[in-house]
Specification:
mainly alpha; about 0% strand; single chain; about 65% helix; flat
Length: about 100
Amino acid sequence: MTVFSAALLLFLVMDPFGNIPFFITALKNVDPQRHKKVIVRELLIALFVLVLFLFFGQYILKLLQISEPSLTVAGGIILFLIALKMIFPTPGGVITGTIPFGSAG
């Protein structure tokens, strides 16, 4: 993987333009003079985490004894379950239908 392809991949994964509505909503109670500082800080933290996993992800998976194919399958299952929830939503929302802790008996 070249540096350019890794940088492009990180840019696409971070999706700074797609995250603008989330930042606007999250920063509605923050002083307007601090918006730029907070946004830059959060993007740098996200970039650091992504670069960390880019270079050390294989070692972390080996440490946790997780193979890459099993991680791929698990990610696919999670995305499939999210898609099912989007296609067939529960009447009261996502939380409805879950069993609270302590009342499973």
